[in-house]
Amino acid sequence: MQIRKQVAKLGIEHFVDAEPGISHQMMVDRGYARPGELVVGNDSHTVGYGALNVGSTGITRADMLYTLLFGELWFQVPGSIKLVLNGKQPNYPIAKDIILHLAGLYGDDFAQNSSIEFTGSLVPQLSMDSRMCLSTHGVEVAAKFAMFPFDEVTDEYLKDKTDHPYEPIAADADAVYDREIVLNVDEMPFAVAKPHHFGNVFPVSDSAGIKVDQAQIGSCANGRLEDIEIAARMMKGRKVAKGVRFVISPASQMIYLQCIKAGYIETLLEAGVQFVTPGCGICQPKVGYMAEGEVCITATTRNFKGRKGSQKADIYLAGPLTVTAAAVAGRIIDPREVFDEI
Amino acid sequence: MKFDLNQTITGRVWKFGDSVDSDSINPYYIYPDMKDMVHHTLEAFRPEFPKEVKPGDIIVAGRNFGCGSHRPGPVLRVIGIAAILVESASRLFLRNNIALPLPIFIVPGITAIIDDGQTLEVNYNKGIATNVTTGATAAMRKYPAMIEHIFACGGLPQLARERYLKENSTAD
């Protein structure tokens, strides 16, 4: 009530009132974050708009007070990390596997206070959904910014979302980097982060056989169309294993509607999947509370102890394909053993 | 609450490892009220911590302290933590503690010079943290003057208030 009163009093033009969803997806759905801009937000995953060539990052509540009052804020200039992703995009999303794999190799703070710049032969092939997964997870490797170059994919994505002028930014030709990391995704295994932190990553084979009680796809990292599409494609004609709760939460109402129009929801419901209202709940205990001793495999953002309820529950992070495979098998498994078609 | 960076802080150390997440410091998903949260802060890493911590104690931790979600994080101030010294901190946790303010210092090498339960002396003015028992020291990283000023003002909201009043009083 207080917020509505203030919005009316201050004449705030862009106010999303009762519509459920994750703020970060709603920001990009509506074209509120544009290439070349500096955008700050009161949540760590604000860094995700870097997918759209936006310099965006999370700030604190006190920082927001200062920003709203003066239109400026203190920053320490970050060093830059060149992240070269080479290889071929397979016919399923691998963004989650990439960032997990990197966190496993270099640690969950390898980009501490730095700005990540994504480049390499894979980048032009990456969908906007995959880019958003990678940029959103910038904060899971401690980055301040996690930016993609502006290209045809960005241009196409923004076409019907904004008529606001913008000016993309790119690295200088002679830019100096603190560090350069090269990853060939063709040689990368399906990655799974074991409990209880993002950098505790091993190939899926290492966790194979662990029985799961819950499988999830959603959040600001993996609640987008391609994440739900791969689940629908794989679940067609298959069933969720007995005793497993397979929960999917689209990141926004707009994505939910796209899923319905594409027929994904019907396919997934027939397979035994349950849907929950768009929002952040799937990444928290609010949706799919985990009891003591339970195991969850999830394409969401975090696996800290207690993140989904009991501190004695185990949370494994993986990409949407690996999560779907586990939901079908009832245990963690290499997706290639479940899905012959990939 | 203004904080004088030049005062020396001495206290008993609680030592933590790497990547202590903000969910564990602020388990507000499960305990949304501060009166409950004080009994559960950091129990995910050390169950005895919320039971035995005393006002004036110091936290020493490894890399990436406070990683994960953005959380306002006053719980550690509420229980009376006098200072936090870490190898490195998550940038949002660092910003939050500067804004509060709760003295937080980046001290590369700090985990090598002190053990859990020992007494640490923190002298920001000299830029040195000293293990009172062994005499071992580690160099503290200095903040830019602008951030020192946030501490001196008593936090970022107070700095904002002072600036706002200053800029708007002359206009009348």
Question: Could you give a quick summary of the protein structure above?
Answer:
The complex is a heterodimer of chains A (342) and B (172). Chain A has helices at 2-10, 23-29, 61-70, 95-106, 128-136, 152-158, 219-222, 225-235, 253-262, 264-270, 320-329, 335-338, and strands at 38-41, 55-58, 80-86, 115-119, 145-147, 179-184, 191-193, 201-203, 214-217, 245-248, 274-275, 295-299, 314-318.
Please tell me about this protein's structure.
The complex is a heterodimer of chains A (342) and B (172). By secondary structure, chain A is of the alpha/beta class. Helix content of chain A is 29%, strand content 16%. Chain A is built from 12 helices and 13 strands. Chain A has helices at residues 2-10, 23-29, 61-70, 95-106, 128-136, 152-158, 219-222, 225-235, 253-262, 264-270, 320-329, 335-338, and strands spanning 38-41, 55-58, 80-86, 115-119, 145-147, 179-184, 191-193, 201-203, 214-217, 245-248, 274-275, 295-299, 314-318. Chain A has a 7-stranded mixed β-sheet, sandwiched between helices. Chain A has a 4-stranded parallel β-sheet with strand order 5-4-3-6, with helices on one face. A two-stranded parallel ribbon of chain A has the order 1-2. In chain A, helix 4 (95-106) packs parallel to helix 5 (128-136). The mean pLDDT of chain A is 97. Chain B has helices at residues 22-25, 34-37, 49-52, 75-78, 91-99, 110-113, 145-153, 156-169, and strands at residues 9-15, 58-61, 83-86, 104-106, 119-123, 128-131, 137-139. Chain B has a 7-stranded mixed β-sheet with strand order 4-3-2-1-5-6-7. In chain B, a hairpin with a 4-residue loop joins strand 5 and strand 6 (128-131). The longest helix of chain B is centred in the C-terminal third of the chain and has 14 residues, at 156-169. At the A-B interface, helix 3 of A face helix 5 and helix 8 of B.
